[in-house]
Amino acid sequence: xxxxxxxxxxxxxxxxxxAGLVAQAGSLQPQQIYRWKDAKGRQHVTNSPPPPxxxxxxxxPLQNPQSTTPPGTAASPSALExxxxxxxxxxxxxxxxxxxxxxxxxxxxxxxxxxxANQADAMLDDALWxxxxxxxxxxxxxxxxLVVLLGWWIGGGLRRGPASVVMGSSILAGLALxxxxxxxxxxxxxxxxxxxxxxxxxxxxxxxxxxKSENRARLKTFLRSLESKAxxxxxxxxFPKELQALREFLPQALLDP
Length: 257
What we know:
- The chain has helices at residues 4-27, 79-84, 97-110, 113-129, 138-155, 160-201, 213-229, 238-255, and strands spanning 34-37, 43-46, 55-56.
- The chain is mainly α.
- The chain has a three-stranded antiparallel sheet with strand order 2-1-3, with no helix packed on it.
- Helix 5 (138-155) runs antiparallel to helix 6, helix 6 packs antiparallel against helix 7 (213-229) and helix 7 (213-229) runs antiparallel to helix 8 (238-255).
- The radius of gyration is 23 Å and the shape is flat.
- The relative contact order is 0.14.
């Protein structure tokens, strides 16, 4: 009888977390991105349709591109794409590859490693979080808490021995489900976008520039490693660690591709 009040609170918290999970799942739907120019010639990027009279820009939407090349450019596979053997059709591409190439050339002329790192970070951040809420990592935390609360709720009405088994099992089940949620809803989609971005990158290294064989091989290795670490069978910290290693590699590779 002493457990009635905690059990009541557990029910309330479980219902709240369930509602939060449903709301978060609804927010995972990709948003349409619109690029348009107003009457004064200013460019806008919004997630709502442009007003009447606006001039749509001939740029593929970020969330459902049909090609990883800019408009007017032939969609031919890059050498990195050939090496990796795949291209993600669901990944977004930077809206301004030309500006990226120009800033990269300026960084090379100045031998500015910080500027190259900024370009690499901006490209990766856009791939990782473009159109996705940064609150998404909270989803596996909420999933774990919900499963543990349900185990506490069920075990609260049992004797000590069975209750301990139920609560211990709920912790293990919560960890497994949280890892699956993290991998399925975040890491795997992030890998697909990073893969598409790196695949398209070789065509925008600058005029006449391509990857050296060693840089291409390193990128191929990074993509294979990221794909394996996005699996639910990998530890949750493996994927971020590999992304950090990629961040450290890219600036120097961009300066001297």
